[in-house]
Specification:
The structure holds 2 protein chains of 2 kinds.
Chain A: E1 8-11, H1 15-26, E2 31-34, E3 47-50, E4 53-55, H2 67-72, E5 82-84, E6 88-91, E7 97-100, H3 104-114, H4 117-141, H5 152-166, H6 170-181, H7 184-191, H8 195-202, H9 218-226, E8 229-230, E9 233-234, E10 238-240, H10 243-257, E11 261-263, E12 268-274, E13 277-283, E14 288-290, E15 293-296, H11 300-306, H12 315-323, E16 330-337, E17 356-359, H13 363-374, E18 383-387, E19 402-409, H14 420-438, H15 442-445, E20 446-452, H16 454-461, E21 497-499, H17 513-527
Parallel strand pairs in A: 1-2, 1-15, 2-11, 15-21
Antiparallel strand pairs in A: 3-4, 5-10, 6-7, 8-9, 12-13, 13-14, 16-19, 16-20, 17-18, 18-19
Helix pairs in contact in A: 1-10, 1-17, 3-4, 4-6, 6-9
Chain B: H1 9-15, E1 21-24, E2 27-30, H2 37-46, E3 49-52, E4 57-62, H3 66-73, E5 85-92, E6 98-108, E7 111-116, H4 121-126, E8 134-137, E9 142-148, H5 152-157, E10 171-176, E11 179-184, E12 193-199, H6 203-213, E13 220-221, H7 224-233, H8 264-267, H9 283-292, E14 298-304, H10 306-315, E15 331-335, E16 341-352, E17 357-364, E18 374-381, E19 384-393
Parallel strand pairs in B: 3-13
Antiparallel strand pairs in B: 1-2, 3-9, 4-7, 4-8, 5-6, 6-7, 9-12, 10-11, 11-12, 14-17, 14-19, 15-16, 15-18, 16-17, 18-19
Helix pairs in contact in B: 2-7
The chains are: A alpha+beta, B alpha+beta.
């Protein structure tokens, strides 16, 4: 074996690439991970962009991570440490707020301030949701079946899928279909009357997708975000120690402990193919590495139109990829703060900053924010999902100082009549104005501001059109149709060439699911 | 009759958002301060927290024969505890069964302080005989504050530089804001941590200084609920949970020897560290037990098989429970070819957030003591007694290098990227 020969090469050192590499290496393969940037992590990185302040530039929280990956890759051994978010805070423009905690009785009192009938509605909502998740989760956790195949093994997979659904009672199955096809607003209107209670849930129905909470399809986005868990608690999110970059550092150590080699500053130009077989890769600088297995952790467009020559692919795949929707619509504005922001009604307190700070006080607020994006502009009053991570992870900032990650919607990739390089700072000002409304004096606290537009997400993290999920969560591009009907089983029409990014099932967020399921597929193919 | 309050209580009560208190040795003791005990738990594992440990019984033992006296009572050879050191030990009855555990702090050649969970003054005084020793109950004279967690050293060193190079189980006098204190590198969390002892009148002032030193660093008070999570991960036995005092037992099944409780390390191999020419209560029985190998139990940690635990609940149509609050009852352990032989019992069982696993402290038959042995833990699922496999391991299951180490341990993840 020559120095540049491996059993498998993974293109892209994001969290799915690393997960995939770790599983392959654990099974004994000699694996090489090639990362374009100077460090791994992809969109799950932590950077010291201002001295002493660690920013989660892009992805900033954990929930969807498949718990079995933690065990199977021995991540605790390598420093895995998800921290509890003790609170979720939804401030309102009139100075009121909704503060949800780990204490159910406190939460009941808090909801009752806004609506007494929403108190038990909240309990019923939680239970009904858990029932839906019980049905959906096995499908989320397994490779999608090939429903187009006559092969008995594939037919058995289809039968397994149907069996999962048949296990559900009528109400739960109906709820599931309403989630998968309907709007978040319709679902929430069944339960709640309070705007702030509804909107605090509805924020999960729009993240990363160009939909409003009243749009059909937002139910699917909501279900996807709530299917996650933290220490066994469904729908709960946490911060990894050191941010999500801390998490991908853990993954790198795990992969390396299993024997994988990680090379940074190694941008791959293309995959070498011979007789419709992958045989290796070439870097931008001409260096060649060979391996009979090449795995792309990049998005579907890069996987099928840039790394390989589309002329080697069947036309139905090419057509499906060309119409696969990215249309990134999210941005980040990250702040280094001299002190905690002040919410006047909770002056002198800190506990409401323990988790997400959700700005967008009603379904109408969120939907109107979406309206701007629909017609080609960023929201004039955007939805903000803030997270002052240094409150629960003091190592992120100097004592008494703070980092605040703000996820912003909507910020459409394509702006009508302008571009993001022109609009970057005025967009940042728009976001900061909303923060100033809720936290008077916010601007005086800002030591540093980092605006991350969809264009930056595309340029820096390499996600096409800045879509954080490597493709929207739309029914026609989920499950056995992600990224394309008939090409959802991690292999590709090019033998030895695989896909393991979030553009494959189950999809985006730091789940590790695509990376793991692709590894299972690769290892099964090797045996065959 | 009201319970007493500790010297720190006026301030800590202001910080308590829950109003939840238990009773501990006659004092109000906060169960938690925050709405989530797990939040307090993470403060200790990830930053630092402080716990009011004042209700512990405290005895000052002084006089030219103090060392001789303690050496005759304590199971560990406390003569090796030099001035400026502390030592964790048990004390036993004549049959070699454990009466209690506690820490001795040797502040000077003839000046010791002993902490204990239960009252012991009468017992100790009766043992003095003709020795030149005086024993004084100083329980109410001091406040004791445990400051625990990765940042505890930095926070305390900002007030008392002596803390910087204090070794594990070392102690030092110091001054905090002019008030004399004794700081020891001890605790009950299995993390880097210290305990600060201060005279009752100075307690509030010292507490305020310490809180101030940790300001802006996620430093928060923690209560008993968080402590119970921390101590199980740390493999630290709790009296009346892992064992009860042989003093109040009715049968030998309720009594345990140090070796059976996992304190074999106090004795050394074949009693090698018991010390020469040191008669102490229980010595002959302990030596006989070690020589004849008559220990009935071994104390181990358990890793519960996560897959079996998960599948058992999923098969029953349940959400997989992961509760960091320890279960307050004993759970049987089974073994043998048909898994129908009782081979021990778990004394503490919980889901560990930092280890991401269900873990337990357990007592098993000696043949199951070897690391990696398989036992089957009984749990109830849908009102049915079922079992899941578990693997034995040495305690503690969570044992970070910072607990005993001297270097500043960086955050678990070095997240600071050099390049852009």
């Amino acid at each position: 074996m020559t120095a540049n020969t491996y059993d498998a090469i993974v293109v892209g050192g994001g969290h799915n690439g690393l997960t995939n590499a770790a599983y392959l290496a654990k099974s004994g393969l000699n694996v090489l991970v090639l990362e374009r940037r100077g460090f791994v992590g992809g969109a799950a990185i932590t950077e010291e962009l201002h001295p002493g302040f660690s920013f989660t530039t892009f992805s900033y929280a954990l929930s969807l991570l498949r718990p079995e990956i933690i065990h199977e890759l021995d991540l605790v051994e390598h420093g895995f440490m998800p921290l509890l978010m003790p609170t979720a805070f939804s401030p309102m423009e009139n100075g009121d707020y909704l503060l949800m905690t780990e204490d159910e009785q406190f939460n009941d009192l808090e909801i009752a301030r806004h609506s007494k009938r929403d108190v038990d509605a909240y309990h019923r909502w939680g239970h009904d949701l858990d029932r839906v998740i019980q049905v959906a989760k096995p499908l989320f956790d397994a490779a999608p079946p090939d429903i187009f195949s006559d092969d008995p093994a594939d037919q058995a997979d289809v039968a397994w899928m149907m069996k999962q659904l048949r296990g559900a009672d009528k109400k739960t199955l109906h709820d599931l279909v309403r989630f998968l096809t309907g709007s978040c607003a319709d679902l929430l209107d069944d339960y709640f009357e309070s705007d702030i209670v509804k909107s605090s849930i509805a924020s999960s129905s729009i993240i990363g997708n160009k939909v409003g909470p009243m749009s059909q399809g937002s139910g699917l986005v909501l279900l996807y975000h709530l299917i996650g868990e933290q220490d066994g608690h469904h729908g709960v999110w946490g911060f990894h120690k050191g941010g999500n970059g801390g998490f991908t550092q853990v993954l790198q150590r795990a992969a390396e402990a299993y024997g994988a080699t990680v090379r940074v500053e190694s941008p791959v130009d293309h995959v070498i193919t011979k007789d419709n077989r992958a045989t290796g890769v070439v870097l931008d600088d001409g260096t060649e590495y060979s391996a009979p297995i090449v795995v792309s952790a990049l998005d579907p467009r890069r996987t099928f139109t840039e790394l390989v020559d589309p002329r080697e692919l069947p036309s139905d795949l090419n057509e499906a990829i060309s119409r696969y929707r990215f249309q990134g619509t999210s941005a980040k504005v990250n702040f280094a703060l001299d002190d905690l922001p002040v919410f006047p009604a909770l002056k002198g307190r800190i506990d409401h900053f323990g988790g997400f700070v959700n700005i967008g006080e009603s379904l109408e607020y969120l939907e109107r924010a979406y309206d701007d994006a629909k017609y080609g502009w960023y929201s004039q009053k955007p939805f903000i999902d803030g997270a002052i991570q240094s409150v629960v992870d003091p190592d992120m900032a100097p004592p008494g100082k703070h980092v605040m990650s703000c996820f912003i919607q909507y910020a459409p990739y394509e702006l009508k009549g302008s571009d993001w390089d022109t609009e970057r700072q005025s967009f940042g000002d728009t976001v900061q104005a909303v923060l100033e409304t809720h936290f008077p004096g916010f601007g005086d606290l800002v030591l540093h501001r980092e605006v991350v537009t969809p264009l930056d997400i595309e340029r820096v993290a390499g996600l096409t059109e800045g879509n954080i999920f490597l493709g929207e969560f739309l029914a026609p591009q989920m499950y056995f149709m992600r990224p394309a009907p008939g090409y959802a089983r991690y292999n590709t029409p090019i033998e030895g060439y695989y896909q393991c990014g979030s553009g494959t099932h189950p999809g985006g967020c730091v789940s590790g699911g695509p990376g793991k399921l692709a590894a299972m597929r690769i290892l099964a193919d090797k045996v065959r | 009759m009201l319970m007493k309050t500790t010297p720190f209580h006026p301030r800590l009560n202001e910080l308590n958002q829950t109003g939840l208190y238990g009773h501990w040795a006659g004092y109000l003791s906060a169960l938690r301060y925050d709405l989530a005990a797990k939040h307090e738990y993470f403060a200790v594992r990830n930053s630092a927290g402080y716990f009011d440990t004042s209700p512990l019984y405290k005895y000052r033992i002084t006089g030219p024969d103090a060392e001789l006296f303690l050496a005759g009572v304590m199971t560990r050879d406390v003569r090796r505890c030099r001035p400026g050191q502390a030592m964790y030990t048990v004390w036993c009855d004549d049959a070699g069964y454990v009466l209690e555990d506690g820490v001795v702090f040797r502040e000077a050649e003839d000046d010791w302080l002993l902490t204990a969970a239960d009252p012991n003054l009468g017992y100790l005084e009766d043992l003095v005989g003709r020795l030149r020793v005086s024993i004084e109950d100083v329980s109410a004279d001091y406040g004791m504050l445990a400051v625990q967690g990765p940042r505890s050293r930095e926070i305390l060193a900002a007030l008392a530089p002596e803390v910087s190079d204090l070794p594990f189980f070392g102690l030092t006098p110091a001054k905090v804001g002019g008030a004399p204190v004794v700081i020891s590198r001890t605790g009950y969390t299995g993390d880097l941590g210290y305990e600060v002892r201060v005279e009752a009148d100075d307690a509030l002032g010292v507490l305020d200084k310490i809180i101030q030193a940790g300001d802006g660093q996620g430093f928060r008070p923690f209560g008993e609920e968080a402590l119970l999570m921390l101590r199980i991960e740390a493999g630290l036995s709790l009296i009346n949970v892992e064992f009860s005092s042989a003093r109040y037992a009715f049968t030998d099944a309720e009594r345990f020897t140090p070796k059976e409780l996992g304190f074999g390390w106090m004795l050394g191999k074949n009693g090698a560290t018991l010390g020469d020419e040191r008669p102490f209560i229980g010595r002959r029985a302990i030596e006989r037990e070690l020589r004849d190998g008559t220990s009935r139990w071994a104390t181990v940690g358990l890793w519960i098989d996560w897959e079996a635990y998960r599948d058992l609940h999923l098969e029953h149509g349940l959400i997989v429970p992961k509760d960091e609050n320890p279960v307050p009852w004993e759970s049987m352990l089974y073994g043998g070819p048909d898994r129908d032989e009782r081979v021990g019992y778990a004394t503490s069982f919980m889901y560990s957030p930092v280890l991401q696993r269900h873990i337990a402290m357990a007592r098993v038959l000696p043949e199951y003591a070897a690391k990696g042995s398989t036992v089957h833990l009984e749990i109830t699922v849908d009102h049915e007694y079922l079992s899941v496999p578990a693997t034995t391991d040495r305690l503690p299951l969570f044992n970070p290098a910072r607990k005993t180490g001297s270097a500043r341990e960086l955050a678990p993840i070095s997240m600071r990227m050099e390049q852009r």
